[in-house]
Design goal:
The chain is an all-alpha fold and 216 residues long. It has one domain: Orthogonal Bundle (Rna Polymerase Sigma Factor, Chain: A), CATH 1.10.1740. It contains 8 helices and no strands. Helix 1 packs across helix 2 and helix 5 packs across helix 8. The chain starts with a helix and ends in a 5-residue tail after the last helix.
């Protein structure tokens, strides 16, 4: 199926889900769940947790499909955001051992084994997401950024980070937990700013077309 046709089909299915069409929901799940599972797995790194993220993400999709706006984002990009947000919520809640739930997007390592068919668009989305998350990471306070970088880029445990930074282990755990919480806030702000920018472009485009007679 061509990419343009797939985007149109996904958009139509999400519209159906917004109208509480269970058949549309089932079709959307069949088309996207394997790739969304891979997105979750890249973040939480544990299949069981990834499955929990996936289930919760599709429950939220069923409830909030009406918020999708095809003029602001592609269907798959929107689905990725739903899954990523739920995964980030989960790892923020699990503060006991941050190194057991690494965020793949911050690392320079190869991507996790695919649980979906690889394609050029998915690869592009992955690279774009990694850049976004790295940008968000740079906005964190120094101590939070340093702990997350050491954990995710260098694979260091809490104890190793504590030795490296010469700070108590409890302090490292606190910084890791708060860093993940702050990262979620920064990421949400980034997405909000992007949505506003895209909405502004769409409004400007409509106004321009109307002024030049291309719109009724």
């Amino acid at each position: 199926m061509e990419t343009a046709n797939l985007k149109a089909e996904l958009a139509n299915l999400i519209e159906g889900v917004a109208k509480k069409d269970r058949r549309a929901f089932e079709q959307l799940y069949q088309l996207t769940s394997r790739k969304m599972f891979a997105v979750a797995l890249r973040i939480v790194r544990e299949p069981g947790l990834a499955q929990d993220v996936l289930q919760d993400a599709y429950i939220r999709l069923w409830r909030y499909a009406h918020t999708f706006n095809g003029k602001l984002s592609a269907p798959e990009t929107w689905l990725h955001q739903v899954v990523r947000n739920r995964a980030l919520d989960l790892i923020s809640q699990q503060s006991n051992n941050v190194t057991s739930i690494p965020i793949e997007e911050f690392a320079e390592s190869e991507e996790v084994e695919d649980y979906s068919e690889a394609n050029e668009e998915a690869s592009h989305d992955g690279r774009e997401l990694k850049l976004v998350m790295q940008t968000c990471l740079q906005k964190l306070e120094g101590k939070y950024r340093q702990v997350l970088t050491l954990a995710y880029n260098h694979g260091m445990s809490h104890a190793e980070i504590a030795d490296h930074l010469c700070v108590p282990l409890g302090t490292v755990k606190t910084w890791a937990r708060r860093g993940l919480m702050e990262l979620k806030v920064v990421y949400d702000e980034h997405e909000s700013e992007l949505e506003k920018a895209l909405r502004g472009r769409a409004e400007a485009y409509r106004a321009d077309n109307k002024a030049t007679g291309y719109m009724a």
